[in-house]
Each structure stands twice: as C-alpha cells, then as structure tokens.
Amino acid sequence: MSNGIVYLVGAGPGDPSLITLRGLECLKKAEVVVYDYLANEQLLNYAPESAERIYAGKIGGRHNQGQDEINNVLVEKAKAGKVVVRLKGGDPFVFGRGGEECESLREANILFEVIPGVTAAVGASSYAGIPLTHREITASVAFVTGQEGKDKNESNIDWDRLSLGNGTVVFYMGVTTLRRNMKRLIEHGRSPETPVALVRWATTPCQQVLVGTLADIADLADANSFKPPAVTIVGEVVALREKLKWFDRRPLCGKKIVVTRAAEQAGEFSEKLAARGATVLECPTISLVEPESWQLLDLAIRDLPSYDWLILTSGNAVRYFFKRLDALGLDARALTGCRICAVGPKTAEEIRAFGIKPDLVPTDYKAEGVVDEFSRLDMHDCRVLFPRADKAREVIPIALKRMGAHVDSPVAYRNIFPQRLLPETLFALEKRSVDCITFTSSSTVQNLAAMLGEELMLDMLKGVAVASIGPITSKSCRDLGLRVDIEPEEYTLNALVNALEAHFYSKTKVDTSLATDNFN
Ligand code: SAH
Fold first, then answer.
1. Which residues pair with 282 in a beta bridge?
2. Catalytic residues
3. Taking the complete model, does pTM exceed 0.70, yes or no?
4. Could you give the CA distance from residue 455 to residue 161 in angstroms, rounded to a whole number?
5. So where are the chain's domains?
6. Is the Cβ atom of 202 under 6 angstroms away from ligand 1?
7. 3-state secondary structure of 495
8. One fold for 122-249 and 256-286+418-510
9. Cα–ligand 1 centroid distance for 392 (angstroms)
10. How far apart are CA 390 and CA 92, in angstroms?
C-alpha cells in the first residue's frame, strides 16, 4: 500500500458553509482535488494553492464512460502517494457514485475515507422551509432517482409502495422526467392534488422554488422553463412552506448589492447585507499603500523616547506604525515612557494585540471627541506623535497645537484608488444584473468615478438604486450626476442596512400565489 489516500468529501448542496468540519480539514491538506460540477467552486479556495485541481467533468465527458476514468485518476494519484480529495456535491453516497469509486479504490488496495455531506434533498428541505417528515403529516421519506426505469417494465422502483400512503418522496435528477414521474405516482394511487415543490440550486443565492400539485407541476415547470439541477419534493409537507419559509423571506433576498468600501473595511458591512439575503459584490475603491518616503516616520520612531504621547486613530495606522517599527529592528519596548491614545475600540484592540495597553481610549471617537479628551489634560509643551494617512483631517493636530503641544504627524500610509474593478463586479454591472450600489463616504463615489470615468459610471449605474450613508456622501453623488435613492436618517452602517431593507421591502410585490412562489 502506498502512502496515498483518497478522501471522498461531501461538499454539501451548494452553500459552501454547509461542508462539514472534517471535510474542510481534508480539503486543507489536499494535494489533489478532483471536483464535480455540483460542488461549489468556492470551496476550492480552501485547498492549498499548490494543490492540483482536476475538474471531473473534464475527465468525464459522457456520464458513464467518464466514471471509469475518474476512478482511474483517483487510483493513480493515490498510488503516486498523494493526498487526494474527491469533492462531490451533496453526500458522496447519495446518488453520487461514491460507492463505485470506493469499490475501485478497495480493489486497487488504496486507503480511503468517506466524509458525509448535506444531501440536496436535505438542503432543499431546510432552505425551502419544507420539513421532510412531520409528526402530524408523515413519518417516512424516500429519496428516489428521477432517471431510473425509462422503460416501465425495467423499473426497480416500487411505484405502488411509493404512491400509496402519505410518505414524502424526493426525486433527484427528475426535471426532464418530471411529467412521467408525476403521472406514475398518480396512476399508482397518489392524489393528483398532492402538493409538489421543485427546488432548484437549493441553498444558493440562485435558489428557486416552484410549487404546484402532482397534476399541474409539469405544466408549471414548462411554462416557467424550469431547468435542472433541482429536487422534486412530493407530499403534504410541502404545504408547510407557506408558514415556514425563511430563506427567501429575508429582506434583501436575491438582491445584488455592490459595496464600494476599502477591501480592509468592507467585511462587516458585507456580512450584514449577506445575513439579510443579499448577494454582495465587493468593489474596493480605496487601497492602502506605503508612504512615498519613510523618512519623517523613521525620524520620529528613532526619537520615540522624546515623545509623551503616541496617537493612533485607526487599525491601519496601528498596522503601518508597528510594521515600520519592526522594519527598523525595534519592538514595543521602544514605546516605554510614551503614553498611547487609541481612537476607537477596534484600534485599541489592535494595539492590545501587540501586548500594549492603551492609556487613553476616548469614548467619542470622532476627531472632535478626541480633542475634547485631551483638552482635560495639560498638554503644554508635550511632544505628540500622530502617524496618519496622507489625506487625513487636520482637526487633531491643529487643536493639540493650540493647547501648546508640539505635534509631529508623519505619513504612515496612503489611500489610493485601485486601477480597475474586480472582474466579478464589473461583469455584473455590465450585465445590468446589479440592484443597488452603496457609497459609504465621498471618496468611495469619487474614486469609482475616477476608476471608471464619470460617463461610464453614470451609464453603468442606470437603473441601479444608489444608497448613500449620509448627506455629505449624497452631495458627492449628486455632484457627479447620480440620483440618490436611499439615505438613512442616521449616519451609521446599521442605519444604512435598515434603509436598504425598507427600500427593497416596499418594492417587493408580495406574491401569495402558491404556484409562482418565489419564481423569477
Ligand atoms: N450526491 C448528490 C446528488 C447527486 S445527483 C447529493 O447528495 O445531493 C445530482 C442531482 O442532485 C441533481 O440532478 C439534483 O436533483 C440534485 N441536486 C444537487 N445539488 C442540488 C441543489 N443545489 N439544488 C437542487 N438539487 C440539487
């Protein structure tokens, strides 16, 4: 036996965060990843950069012939001593041909492990709000392939048993054969009125749900050009969706929203939008770079013992300052004797990460609030070091100088705008598939205009709702010819999120018809 091993990992139904911890662990140590069309490609980002990525569809070609070749690749790579992850959509052992792959590995005497995944029926059930079993409705569920038994006499499926009683039936791979399978259930005794849900791309932002009955779902699917991949859930439990649906009830569900903050700052805002169902497209309009010269900051750092105060006003200032300290061969000890003011709780946290407790963390962390705190101290003749961004406001240094302090404010980093948009965002804007763009400071909109050119920006944002965080940013938008559709009353990210919700809520036509439920 070689040292190679194959992990058959269930990737889950679509939402990449539904993979198991064990699955992720295996992926992180993979040397080769062989992945399927149904496994979310974002999961590949967790594999080491050096790992070889093989798309099984490319090896596969046609379904049946391809399987032998996939088996061979797994065997060969493992024989060469590699750690191989076979990443499969859903669960490897539910209609995933994982059984066949394991058989061939066993024959070749290769070690393997199988890591389960959330199978499509289960993912669709949760995310469509359709419990597969329910004490009052049904105590059984069957997973059935929609592709089996094209010739009625050859079917391995016991249609009588499946059709009688009230067990839930979930078909996989059953969109193209929908009409035939629904008809069979009726012929074998299920009521034509039984509710049916088709759930497509379950658990992903593109999830679509189409609800009907055994009698009419095939017509509805045709009328809506419903395409695979989808599972078909048949049974009275489907009626619970009206009450239990949650995924497509989230206020920003299905909305594509562009976030123009700096990459370093976008995270929290983007997460809030995503938690409300939005698909977030990041569009960094600011990036941070080193100063043109380190000379002034270096002079100050070498002279640190002579300073009474060091003021750091952002996480960026902390990171750039300490990076430079390190580059000069110094560490936190160079700050002995110097008091430290951290503006904002996050800045304070970053300073603590260097093992230093800030002496002053002003409660109000706008520049005016900081000045207010210092005005209570005797700053006369104090030496203050204030490393900062190149375009920072002058409020703090000016006020401190008025108090009699000597302030040095060398540039520690610069804000510049990136040369181009991220391809995914540009693509969505060009395709006109974006619902909303958010601007959280004047520089975000001004930089976007500079990146795209004003005319192109106006053209690309036609029909896109513009959300601005407050009056100053809105003015910058209008100055550039943009119409502002959303502006919260309070100047905070939370208020902006709420305003977005309110905007899209009022725009959503609440469609109560069961048949076209969330179908677009
Ligand atoms: N091993 C997979 C199933 C593979 S068979 C699993 O456990 O889920 C492929 C079929 O799975 C598709 O035809 C479709 O019926 C279903 N499927 C897979 N992913 C799906 C998804 N995100 N939404 C709906 N159906 C899905």
1. 259
2. 36, 58, 173
3. yes
4. 65
5. 5-117, 122-249, 256-286+418-510, 289-415
6. yes
7. helix
8. no
9. 52
10. 54
